[in-house]
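Continuing from yesterday's entry. The apo prediction looked reasonable, so today I'm repeating it with S-adenosylmethionine included to see how the binding region is handled. Same sequence as before; SMILES copied from the compound registry.
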Amino acid sequence: MDVRETTLQAAVGAHLAGTHIRRAHRVLQGSGTVAPGLRWPDASDGRDPRADLEAEGRASYAGHYFSPHQASVFDGLYDALPTSPNERDVLLAALLATASDCAAAPGHTAQPFQPTTTALPHIVAAWRIDPLARVRRYIEDLTAVVPRRQGCAAKTTAEEFLNDADLRGAVVFCDPPYSEVQYSRFYHVLEGMAVGGWPSVSGSGRAPELSLRFTSAFSSRRHSTAAFAALFESLRKSGATAILTFPNHLCSNGQSAATLATLAAEQFDVNIQLLDGRHSSLGANASSLGGRVAHRDVAEAVLVLRPRSKR
Ligand SMILES: C[S@@+](CC[C@H](N)C(=O)[O-])C[C@H]1O[C@@H](n2cnc3c(N)ncnc32)[C@H](O)[C@@H]1O
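Holo prediction written out below.
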């Protein structure tokens, strides 16, 4: 932390202490703790700000990912979501898309930007977004196109989805993990908003406890080969043609397009094409880019797995 950050935080603290902002206790210190000098506008108010924050559950992101104003708008909109499934889905999707735009973070939510000289302009730009205007725009976009045939979405694992599925004649697209870092580390803010809040969050990333985060065998160096072998077996049994994208170099989960092609060739006729692609480094080197999302150019392989014709 340099002198400018300290000065900035002191200025925010002084501003909050001198105003009657209703939810000022949601603006936490850089360490994620309540400011020790926090006083309620009404001096006789004896509430514990920490307990209040915990009781609010999802109000854990103000002053971290979202501005206090954005966070309180999101809370209000979430509470006002209708119960009828279709309307709720569209409005929740618009809310999540808006939250994704407003998050002062580098393309994912492992950690918010810190108020450093380089990242501050990105925080200001994200927090300047008017959440209500943005939500309205997303609702208009999402409702402008009406499908002729109703589709469906399933929130489940690939393993469960493919379990005994009959997908003869269908094409399945797989975009599996290539990093040994669990992806649930990067999306917990939007996931938390989608499920109505985590019981508690902590640390500079404001993440829920580890036991609540999804763990994928595809991301584990030790288990990824068995996980991909099982995936290919289920895909073969389903009868589908599969298209699978994967970087063409050895990735941190121990796999490359070549290892997956070899594994898949036990079950399918495999065809590989290479494309130029850009991959998020999932935070690595983000500081060298002024806190924005870091990418690196990689060749992306597209594997087409066709069921073997019976001879
Ligand atoms: C490379 S990302 C692709 C995500 C998405 N296609 C995109 O471009 O943003 C891999 C995704 O696979 C998900 N994943 C991990 N294990 C999974 C499993 N067992 N079944 C289904 N999805 C899984 C991760 O959570 C992650 O979102």
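Comparison notes:
- Confidence is low (pLDDT under 50) at residues 285-291.
- Residues 157-159, 175-178, 183, 216, 218 surround S-adenosylmethionine (CB under 6 Å).
Will overlay with the apo model tomorrow.
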